[in-house]
Amino acid sequence: xxxFMSRSHQFNLLTNRKLANKSKSLNLRLxxxxxxxxxxxxxxxxxxxxxxxxxxxxYDLTDSRIEFSVKNDIEPRGTVISNPTRIVIDxxxxxxxxxxxxxxxxxxxxxxxxxxxxxxTTRMVVEFSPEVKLNPQDLRLKxxxxxxxxxxxxxxxxxxxxxxxxxxTLPITGAAISSGFGxxxxxxxxxxxxxxxxxxxxxxxxxxxxxxxxxxTYAGWTDDGYGNVVELRHDNGELTLYAHTNRVYVSKGQxxxxxxxxxxxxxxxxxxxxxxxxxxxxDGRTAVDPMDYLQLRQVTLDLxxxxxxx
Length: 310
Ligand SMILES: [Zn+2]
Description:
Immunoglobulin-like, Glucose Permease (Domain IIA), 2 domains, 8% helix, elongated, binds zinc ion
């Protein structure tokens, strides 16, 4: 830890001095770094400051923009790699502790990844569909405030992005995720169990929308702890499931459109409070992390909490 602190300190000084410098060449094509507007009044880490780290990462699909922030300032290195097309941004001197975060944006086509490549470098990768061609000359990594960086991608990428990603939209608006997909100790039974969906906390009565067009294959009470459930079958055989609902608005056999209100949030079945439990089964049998399949406008990774506990 002591080691890292002093290294972090050096990096800031180095960054300050190097601000006017231009990018060095790499084996791969280098993104040009535009440093205009960057103020010179960078905060220098004191020996008691937290280690330098990646704090947030946002990939905004609507605006085709990458944004990230680090605790102190550094000089990122960006490259564009083809087959498949991806933008790789390395953050020297930035430690990211924790597992590599990979979030699919489309059906395995596009993804963002954040992880550590070596002891001292955090890497962020945005992967694109094969049809996307990027010219490194068009890309600028800009910093208007110390530690905050943005990269605007060509506007025509938005269209490709949104067309190539999955059909599923969020089944609820304005609700926070209270529990994600994955293994956990069940709040009621106390046993270690796979949580097969995502829970959105919301008041009873909040409308639940169909994540995509589909046919209602189940609507009503279940005895498996899910309470009142709506199950939809979609075009390619995917199932979506909406559990613990207070009331269902649809009945079996009905065709519903994407975004149609199909039920309202409740706390029926084995539930500790009013919420929507939402599942996606792409093959009609096995539940996967719904967040990998939802049509997102933005991929936001809040990484600060994943980092040092100092
Ligand atoms: Zn749940």
